[in-house]
Design goal:
This protein is α+β, with helices and mostly antiparallel strands. Helix content is 19%, strand content 33%.
């Protein structure tokens, strides 16, 4: 669900902000020092750092939907979950950072809510729009300086985005986990050599975490 929200926000910023994908990257990684040293071009970073239930929008514990004169369906209504992002811009020149940040802010401000039909993945099946609170005064005790203090990086100008999504308490989701494995590849020095001159290659594999991966040896 969170990945679907990431993709939804990414598409929104590129399309509404008229930002070319070939010139600007959008990243959802934690903007620590190691991440920032690997950047190769201007990047807008959306760091999801907080998840909590929106108590103001909490529904009644149970709701009854009549089916006919004698029967009804009792169900748990979806919870409303706030996901908070800190948005910052990264470039070689501060002028480029400010310009990129302003374009991202304008794109998100133009979209007070996202309709399910415009969302990505599971969010397309939501019953309610996804409201976006962009660069508004924070209602909670969020200290931005403290957030940057754990990143071991220079603090950047930015703004807060809070997206409110549904969590369906009655929906069962059966999707594979994403597993990281190491594949060893290489070449034998000779036909009689038993070991490979190998290098480690990391890749991502989707599958059942209880299944044993196949292995072959030369």
């Amino acid at each position: 669900m969170i990945n679907d929200l990431d993709t939804t926000l990414e598409r929104l910023i590129y399309n509404v902000g008229n930002i070319p994908r070939t010139e600007v990257d959008i990243s959802f990684e934690q903007p620590n020092r190691d991440w920032s040293t690997r950047l190769s071009r201007p990047t807008l970073n959306l760091w999801a750092f907080d998840i909590r239930e929106n108590l103001k929008l909490r529904p009644n514990p149970l709701q009854v939907q009549p089916k006919d004169a004698r029967t009804a369906t009792v169900y748990n209504p979806p919870l409303r979950i706030d996901i908070s992002y800190w948005v910052s811009a990264w470039a070689r020149r501060v002028e480029d950072e400010h310009s990129l940040l302003w374009r991202g802010l304008a794109a998100l401000k133009k979209t007070p809510s996202v309709k399910p039909t415009d969302a990505h993945g599971e969010l397309r099946y939501a019953n309610l729009d996804i409201p976006l609170k962009v660069a508004l005064p924070s209602e909670g005790a969020i200290n931005i300086s403290d957030l940057w203090g754990v990143l071991d990086n220079s603090m950047k100008l930015g703004f807060l985005v809070v997206a409110t999504v549904e969590m369906d308490m009655d929906m069962a989701v059966d999707t594979p986990l994403v597993l990281e494995q190491t594949l060893r590849v290489g070449q034998k020095a000779s036909r009689t050599e038993q070991r490979l001159a190998t290098i480690d290659v990391e890749f991502t594999k989707k599958g059942d975490p209880t299944a044993q991966p196949d292995s072959t040896e030369e």
